[in-house]
Amino acid sequence: MYAAIDVGSNTLRMLVARCAKNGLHAELYRQKITRLGGSYSAEKGLSRESIERTLFAFTEFADILREMQIERVRVVGTAALRHAKNAQHLVNLVKLKTRLDLEVIGGKEEARLSSAGVLSVLNPCPETMLIFDIGGGSTELSLFDQKQMIFSQSYPLGVVQLCEEMPEPEHRVAFIKDMVVKLSADLLHAGISPRLLKECELVGTAGTVTTLAALNLEMAEYDRRLINNHQLDLAWMIPTLRQLHCMTIAEREQLPGLEVGRGDLIIPGLELLISLCSYFKKPSIRVADAGLLEGVLLTFCRHSSD
Fold first, then answer.
1. Helical H runs in the chain?
2. pLDDT tens digit string along 52-96?
3. Residues 79, 138: contact at Cβ < 8 Å?
4. Model pTM?
5. Which residues are CB-neighbours of 72 under 8 A, at least 6 positions away?
6. Euclidean distance between the first and final Cα of the chain, in Å?
């Protein structure tokens, strides 16, 4: 068995799985919302409280792993740790408390691994697709044509950052639009043809997208089998955003499918999805409940078969 831990800006996630002929066979999944990127400051980096929350969850995960026969484990940190000046402090604490090596990966490596995870669950797999992984501190976008990645970039656009640094909706939406325009310019600069973008399908992964799918399905008990390949229509997202704006955070978190801890983050996440669909003139997005964790584990599987 192999294990992967994703240290995200909002959620600490762990997946234990075996390699199977048809992909991965999941044995155990755990997640804790720790809001690592919460109360972040450029001067000090990660807050003491967010480090303590994350370290506490880490010790729980490490205890679980010690009771299982794990052949290899990889722990990866993303945007919050890439940007924080005190990231090494958390890396050292994790090593001291759990003996686990926390590796901070770059945005392009995150996009590569996340895309590999997404591709493993799409059915059917589109010929051309733009995969976006919306995290707490960054968003990774990867364009595939004929199952080959032809563009990949990480953008400083995460739901925790948007929620905490831009509480005013007008400011936040303007910032999102600017980043989407930058993405479009980057695609043009990379030589991506407008025809390809017109043909591509939008595919989203990570907590914001899967939570919206669960909300759309009114899912009282989460079932990733129903989430994978579910379509989120723009015609549903726009009125849902208006509805959520009229509710308190506590009221939102009472809705079937909306996890406690995401009541404030769901608004900027939904604004970003609507902006992407509108800009690329797509009526819907397809949802994948697989990404970075699965990408890491699939790498282990490939190496074990060599």
1. 48-66, 79-83, 87-98, 107-119, 159-165, 169-189, 194-199, 207-216, 224-227, 234-245, 249-252, 266-279, 292-305
2. 999 999 999 999 999 998 999 999 999 889 989 999 999 999 999
3. yes
4. 0.87
5. 2, 3, 300
6. 17
